[in-house]
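Field reference: sequence -> structure
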Amino acid sequence: MNQNDLKKINDNLWEIPKSFRSDMHVPARIYASDKLLQNIFKDKSLAQLINLTTLQGIVDYGIVMPDVHEGYGAPIGGIFATDPSQNGIISPGAVGYDINCGVRLLISNFTFKDIKDYLDDFANQLQIMIPSGLGKGGGQKLTPEELDGFLQSGAKEAVSQGYGESGDLENCEAGGRLEWANPKKVSSLAKKRGSDQLGTLGSGNHFLEVQKVEKIFNKKAAKAFGLFENQVVVMIHTGSRGLGHQIATDYIRIMIDVMPKYKIYLPDRELACVPFESKEGQDYFVAMACGANFAWANRQMITHHVRTAWAEIFDLNKLDLLYDVAHNVAKLEDYSLQTTDNSKKNNAIDRSRLSVTKLIVHRKGATRAFPPNHPELPKKYRPTGQPVIIPGSMGTASYILHGVETGKESFYSAAHGAGRVMSRHQAVKSLRGKDIIKNMEERGIIVKTYSMRGVAEEAPQAYKNVDEVVETIHQSGLAKKVARLVPLAVIKGE
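Structure field:
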C-alpha cells in the first residue's frame, strides 16, 4: 500500500475505500498529516486497520489516530465499533493486553518557583514509595477476597479504604469502576499475578512525571479545569499490570478455540473474537471490566502515595485530581446510526432516519473524548467537554485538550500519546540510556530510573513528535487544545 491507494478527504484525514479489499465491510479512515502519514507506511498498522474493517458487525469505519503503530492483531491507536444487534463481535486483541492502560493528572495550587528547591527530594521520594519494573510487585499484598473487592469496585474500593476521597471518583472516567465486572470470570493465574501489584507503576512506557503548565491555549477551558501557567502538576501513566495481561491471554486463547463454532474466520488470528452476546463474549466483557477496575484502583493507590510524598516534602496543600481516562478498553456507548425505513406507505420512496443504538466501542491506544453536555461527564465539565489527556514521550511535552461535538466522527476518540516509530529492540540497539539522561538533565529535567535499557527503549527519538500528533487532533476537530505541559522530573520503571 502507498499514498496513491488512499482518498484524501482533507488535510488530516484519509480513507481506504471499501473496494480496496473484497472482505472489507466498511471503509478505513486514517487521521494524519502528510508528514505523519509517511511514518504510518513503515509498519503493518494499515494492514491491521484493514483487517479491523472485516470484523463481524462493524459500523461506519475502522479508524486510526495519528499516533498509530503496529500492535498485537489490532493497531495501537485503533478505534472501531460493532453493533450487538447485528451479531457484532468483541475482541480482546482490539482492547490490548494492558487493559485500561490509562493516565490521570493531579494538579496543585503552586508554581514551579514555589517547589523547585525541593523537586529532587520529591522525585526521590516518589521513586522510593512507588515500586516499578517489569513484573515487579511490592504493592499492597491482597488476599483473594480483598482482590475481588478491587476487581468488583475499582477506585471506589480504594477510596473506601482511605486511599483517596469521593471527589476523586467524580473526576474519573466511569467513576473509576465498570459496574458489570464479575471476578468469577477472572482466572486464578491472573489473580495471582495481580495479588501484589496494586499501587505499582510497571515498566515500558509507564511513568510518573512532575510537570509544569508551559502554555494555555484556551483560557475558559483551562479555568474550568483548574489550570494556569507555570502550575505544577503530576501525571500518572500505568494500567492493569500482570493481571490485565493474563486476562487478555486467557480470553484470546478461548476465542481462538471457539471461533469455528460461530463461523468466524479472520485474516489474522490475533484478532480472535466472538459475538458480543455469546457466552464467551460476555465472559470476556465482565473479566475485562475487572481488569479495568484493577487499573483504576492501581492509579488511585499510586495517587495516594504521590500525595503522601508531596505532603512530606513540601508540606503544602493537597493535590487534586483533574481527570483520569482509559485508553485500552471496550464499552457499550450510545450512538445515532443511519438506518433505512423500507415502508412504502402512499408509494413513498425509502426514507433514511436516525436511531440511537448501543455499540461496543473498542479503543486500543485511543483516549475517549466526550463533548460538552454528555451525560457521562461530571457536571463541572459538561460546559467544556471532557478533559482529554495526551502524554508525550519521555522528556517531551504532554497536552490537555477538551472534547468537542465534531469528535463524533471518531466515536468521540482522540490519540493517546506520541506513538512509536522505532521498536524497543531498535531503540536499545541505536541509543544509549546514559546519553539520553545527560541530554534531559542539561535541559533541567530530573530523571529517576533503575534501568538504562528502559530509558533507551523509551527515548524521545523512538516516538513521533507529540506536538504534530496533537496538532492533527486539534485541526481535525476530534478534540481542542487547552494546555501544553512540560516535564520537570521523570520517574521510570525498569
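Note: The chain is about 30% helix and 25% strand.
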